[in-house]
Amino acid sequence: MKLSNRQRRLLNLLLDRKEGATAGELAEKVQTSTRTVHRELMELETLLAAHGLSLVKKTGIGIALAESGGDLDKFREELRKSDTSEFSAEERKGWMLCRLLEEAEPVKLFALASDVRAAIPTVSRDLDELEPLLAQNGLHLVRKRGYGVEIRGPERAKRNLIVWMAEEYLDASDFYGSLREHADRWPFAGRLLELAGKPWFLAVERSLWKAGEDWIRKLQEPEYTRLLLRLSVAVARMKRGHPAERPPRKAAGRRRNADETVKRLFDALGLEWREPEAAHMHSLIEDAKASAAETSVSFLLDASGLELAEKTLGLIRRVGERIGLPLDQDRSLLDGLVRHLGPALERLARGEVPRNPLLAQIQKDYERLFAAVREGMDALWQDVPIPAEEIGYVAMHFGAAIERWQMAPKHVRALLVCTSGIGSSKLLAVRITKEIPQIEIIGNYSWYEASRVPQDQYDFIISTVDLPIEPERYIKLSPLLTREETDKLRGYIRRLPGDPKPPAPEVPEEERGAWERLKRMNRSLNEMIVVLERFRVYSLNVPVSAEEGALKAALSAMLAKLRPGKAVADEARVAEQLMERERQGSVLLPETQLAFFHVRSEWVRAPVLALFRLQSPLRTTPAAEAKQAFLMLAPAGASEETLEVLSEISALLLDPEAGRLLREGDEDAIRAFFSKQLEIYIKTKPEWREPS
Q1: Which of 366, 435, 359, 431 is nearest to 398 (CA)?
Q2: Each residue of 400-420: pLDDT tens digit?
Q3: Which domains, and CATH codes, for the chain?
């Protein structure tokens, strides 16, 4: 046997776990994606069959090795003696595609062989196998002796191939981790992520969400991820000198109405305006808009009629009452039924009776549920005879909803901590509520704010990043909430200790009206104005030293620059509190030279925002130094509105444009940037919209 290192590790894990393991558990152990685990196991099935073994999927447990005439102990011994190669066959071919797509010139055959550590005949055979794939994508492989190997064809086709490779070999959540982390644990993944534009992925997402356009929220998860991926690939190709072709004149003429969105993208990413690239990005955005219109619930309701929507919701409530579950809280059930019933009822009206081969089994296994659905549909659709076959299909939708509910029977409250992107936190909250309606997301927070929420106000924390607290207090998920992560979340809820806290009492009607919303908005606007008016930029000379005393002296010098005695009552105590926070972890923001010092203190009298441009670098650790320091202070008794404003500003510090302005901009330019972003935030804040 000759196996890749990852294939060997997967087999050893399955041999050690006789009871089985899920694909997610295997992926975590070998540090790769679940998609890759499934692909590797498919590739190993032929090998296992030759040794009298097979892979068996056990419901609720996972994947296990089973003997089919073979001997597990004998196979374990042969595995121990087998050879290991760095790349599997699939990885070799994927790596070579990445190399050929990256290069603008032909690559010598021996260079490819050296890259993948394989013999030249092996590489030639791999290239033969890649030719059909390239042909399917409108590309072809050129191989000439003395010339080398290259991929030829339209740039758009090359970009589409990169998108296909990313979707085929990577999980969507891979785009939110560290590129270095992927490269260290799986070199091919790191290279493919770079080719697919991972360094620009979050910047693309932030730019799209800042536009505040409703169609983005209507995109289904796969379409949303695909749009970000296609735009990131376009940015990466443009940055690396692979320009898009000029579009046909007709396509260019239809572009005027979306130029603003594209220009915003170019500006946010620091791209030089090029007409062909703008046309290409515009076409990607238009494709996504069309997808949003075709798949959004609002479109389905309009297309199928308001009457259908009302009847469907009535059916859900009737069935829920019969079986004792509040199924009207399950958005997935409503979406699925509307999609199914629209065309199904049209077919029934034409006299077409569906065939349902599972009807007898459904009636047997879901007798009570089948009767509840039959009663509800007969009462609501008296003008159309509903056959048992159709009742069976509808009952299965309800069965899936009941299963979702039973897998997480508790009502729990969660904080959501998400710093991966403006849109990601909103989408993650929607997906969690949709998949597990028993979870009440009581707010989206930065860690700065979440760490100050009293623990008796929530049951657990959902985060997309590692947090400096006990592991049992939070669960880490990717912003895109994969199916396996949904199951992981349900399991986490079931293991929560003790009785969960009761649902928050319903807000009285008068507090949900326009008057209350206006008052809250007014308080937030006032806090924004006060905080931004007090913002100042200072120049400061600090000692260059990594010693703790030098850092404390620098903090004292910063506090001394503020309004003496007005903002801070005791500078020494606040400096010590800032030092205490610094000891808990790095204050240097990732990939910047900006130190972020913040604290909420009884010695702070009023909110403070200040930027200090340091004449000499400030060493925060022996290996890290800052050239700017951003100071954020809040009183211990600060209002909810004050903390909300400061939290939003702290999140903005991760924005590349904010980083540029903090390095180069003057006080007015920085204040204008914060003002613009807070204006967008206040316009899109869901709590201030009229309840629907």
Answers
A1: 366
A2: 777 666 655 457 888 888 654
A3: 2-85 (1.10.10.10), 91-247+262-295 (no CATH), 301-400 (1.10.1790.10), 412-494 (3.40.50.2300), 519-688 (3.40.930.10)
